[in-house]
Design goal:
The complex is a heterodimer of chains A (211) and B (416). Chain A has 211 residues and is an all-alpha fold. Chain A has helices at 2-6, 8-40, 44-59, 62-68, 70-73, 77-101, 105-113, 118-148, 161-169, 176-205. Chain A is built from ten helices and no strands. By secondary structure, chain B is α/β, with parallel strands linked by helices. Chain B folds into two domains: 9-274, Rossmann fold (3-Layer(aba) Sandwich); 285-393, Roll (CBS-domain). The relative contact order of chain B is 0.12. The chains are: A mainly alpha (211), B alpha/beta (416).
Amino acid sequence: MDFVSSRWGDVLSNSADHAILVVSVVMAATVFAVLLGIAVRGRQGPRALAIGVVGVGLTIPSLALFTLFIPIVGLGFAPAFLALFIYALLPILRNTVTGLEQVDPAVIESAKGMGMNRRQRLLQIQLPLAWPVIMAGVRVSALLTTGIAAIGVLVAGPGLGEFIKDGLRRLGLPNSMEAVWTGTVFIIVLALLFDLVLSLIQRITTSKGLR
Amino acid sequence: MPDTTLPSPQGRAGATDGDRNVALTPDGFEDVMIRLDSVSKVYPGSTEPAVAELNLGVPRGEILVLVGPSGCGKSTTLRLINRMIEPTSGRIYFDGEDVTDVNPDHLRRQIGYVIQQIGLFPHLTIAENIGTVPKMLGWKKDVIAARVDELLHTMGLEPGEYRHRYPRELSGGQAQRVGVARALGADPDVLLMDEPFGAIDPITRDRLQNEFLRLQADLRKTIVFVTHDIDEAIKMGDRIAILREQSQIAQFDTPERILAHQVDDFVDDFIGSGSTLKGLNFERVSGLNLGGYPVVRHDVGHRVAQNVLADSSQRWLLVLDGQERPARWVNEAHLDRTDRSLLAVGHVVRAKVERNATLHDTLETMLGSSTGCAVVVDAQGRFEGVVEIEALTGVIARLRTEAKAHYEVYAADGTG
């Protein structure tokens, strides 16, 4: 506790950096994965390819993935952002595809029968109906990204990983474990906070008819 | 049993293809709202057509029921009309206009469409569901709101209570009513209904069918209605097209005539047993010639009564009370009891029907009567006549003869 209160300024600024990184990653990944999901939905080949490629991204060891981007974009925010972006895609893409494909065919049939074109069916029927499922994917991605973002400090990325890295470096010296604990606890707090906010957003943006 | 050598009007005309008006319209009706002209559908990868060279006309303001065994192509045929399925060849006309190549989305906004699973939009309110097509057509908000309330009211759903509900809060019957209301949203001239009452319990289904028929009596929409249930077809259809594989029309006619005369074994098998009984649903007592039956007033005395009965060929005599209402059935043995009033002997008359009763109900009544007869009374219960079993067999014979003659005249016209 003393450790935290004596470094309150660092805790806040690292938390803010961490949050900014996660929010920007999740937002970018949501836009990209939802658009990709829309593009490949209902088509066996492209869907399998997209999920496969994005899935491979998730299997690359995080240590390696972060460093792979350094030659391309240098150190700092950029490599951390790109690596996390790749991790964040799969849950959102998978849920988008599943959500869109599990819309009751009778609902789509009647929408088509009433004269809705493809675009209207997608925007007015399929996306709103798939929305709770997509949001569930976004929440998983947010949790995942918040945790993995700690490794971003290895490529000089911002965030609460600073505390953990600092603790590791000074392992055995005074306050080293306190630093690791501070980083870990605030990452968990941040993750829970994100999930709470996202669940509120999900609630507000989902039709009452689907709750 | 039906004359199997007689060609069906549709089958024969489809083969000659020369006189299209006759081909489409056994009755020669002219006012055709929807016309399919040699429409075929062959699915990719299939050699056999799902629908082969179909010619079909739907008279304006009528319900045409497409009925047939599963896999006969009836749903495919329905979906060809609003181009949910694009025809491989042939033309489709709406009100004389060729719509085979118009924008299918625009076409569908002019056609109501109801499917068995209903397919209400679960994330939209009932009002938003019903207002979907009007909104697409650019109606003003207040006009849409008024239209939604009007339709909910028509469907027997209190607008104030249902407007803001969501589909999951509705029972099956209510959901189907909303489905019909949604199809009627922009007041289309044409309604396509694919087994609309198929997934509903029998009691609710019966009620929805009756409600829909009452509604249709006012709306006079042109409706194509698909079912696999011949009884539903008979109930709902102004005309019925019985389809065999590849949507070939086996018989196209009014329910009455189809029940009276089946053109071939396929139709006969499909309708199954009981067609004669079902046919009696379309005839009413008022159409019968109520023949002479021995009747006396209760105060004529036993002597007179005995004479009246003896002069007739009947075993039973009907006794009327002071208000001319049928009171007792008496026979010779009862009349020997001269010590008792005519109102105190014999059996009470229970089997009574009014003139607007169907012959089906009348037969039911007769079967429960001790004398095998039904007494016809007016609204005040006064005697009007007696229906005997011979009257019913006479009607059945007449219906069969007329229907058969209709087809023979038709065949003669066609070949001549």
